[in-house]
Amino acid sequence: MPDARFALWRDRSLRFSMGASATVVNGLMGIIRNKWFAQHLEASGLGILAQVFSNQAWLGTAAGMGLGLPVARVIGAATAADDQPAARRTVWAAFTLLAMTGSVVVAGGLLFAAQISQALLGSAAYAGLIRISMIGVAGVAVQQTLVGLFAGRSDLRAPLTFSIVGGGISVLAMFLLVPRWGLQGGALAVAILFPAGCVGALAVHRRTYAPVLTPPRERALTPGLARSLLAVAGAGLLASLVEQGTFLTVRSHYVRANGIEANGFLQAGLSISQQVGSLFYAYLASYAFGKISGAPGAEGTRAYTRKHWTPIILPAAAALIAARLGATPLLHLLYSHRFDPAEPLMAWALVGEFGRIGLMTWALGSLPLGGARLWFPISLVFPVALAIAYALFAASGAGVLSMPKANASAGLAAACVCGMVMSRRGVTLGARDIAVFAGGAAALILLAWGRVR
User: Fold this and answer.
1) In the predicted model, what is the mean pLDDT of residues 200-225?
2) Do residues 110 and 135 lie in contact, with contact meaning Cβ atoms separated by under 8 Å?
3) In this structure, what is the dihedral angle of CA atoms 88, 91, 95, 101, given to the nearest 10 degrees?
4) Average pLDDT across the chain, whole number
5) CA angle, corner 46, sides to 120 and 22, nearest 5?
6) What is the pTM of this model?
7) Would you list the domain boundaries of the chain?
8) Does 190 have pLDDT greater than 90?
């Protein structure tokens, strides 16, 4: 029995490491990037770029239309059936849709850059940064489809190549451009990450993907294929846009209420907490989701959720608690000593990240179990809770802590609501599982509350 248990944890660790490899590379590149920005642009510059990058991600997601999910599904089925023509048609149909929507989104961003800058940062002076970020918007849109292509072929190498090539070129550009061009150099360095990563991944793995990237002789995009792709993509796209849009709106108000420098400190705290959480999200998305998709009904989904709950939640709590205890050294290492004011913000951000890990772990089987009707409402709980919590904390005078505390409240509330919804569908947790989550949440809240009252 001990040998079997050891083998089980060993296999989980290996799969976790493989699924998290690209995330680790992205995290390392992000650490280097944030450190360089902090040294040359300080908190105010980091706060400005954080808004620009958030807008870049939101517009890129809109341009990508959530095509990654349906592309992954069709490519997976075509690969299993050895149907290269179907895979090729799907990829080129997705690229055709991207060309249309991407052109509209990028053109709109270029045309209304001043208005976007005014809405995000309270000034039209940063319109040039918005225009530069349109390079990244196009790259994000293409990347989403390529992620679906890679996932459909169960390819872990190509995403890692994307991270290494794109992140490496972006960091090199940052070293060269930021000292000379400041904010413009930083915006350009991050914008080229996505197109460089896409080109690099396809170039390195060109032999693997040549059959599906060769243009088909017949017309790729047909009305029927477009409807099938967009029907699946619609719910995922709407959920992503709502969540990212809520974050962007709340952050924009936070900037106007507390200043750009405070937003820089907030970005530092959120970035560290998200880097810790991304390790667990990568495992859940790259491995666990595929496994739970094959679970038979509510009983199988419940068994798989319980099986993985403690092995996910317990290490997540330990990692987030360790990050909280080492907050000051981490901020000095990853940013600079001038980011000490970010420590209390980071403390509450870690609470929210723990809640979101619990949310994703419990909701993992919602899409296979109940389809979009079950998964989509659960996906809206966090952004809705965030907006409500932020409004309450901002009105109560929480100041710079309004956003971190709202994030913490929304993360925990979303996990609880998800638990109630999934329990009604038969996916319940055991008493020990609930105790593990409650204990981790209580420890993180006490650590945050002990320093900030």
Assistant:
1) 85
2) no
3) 140
4) 87
5) 100
6) 0.73
7) 18-222, 259-453
8) yes
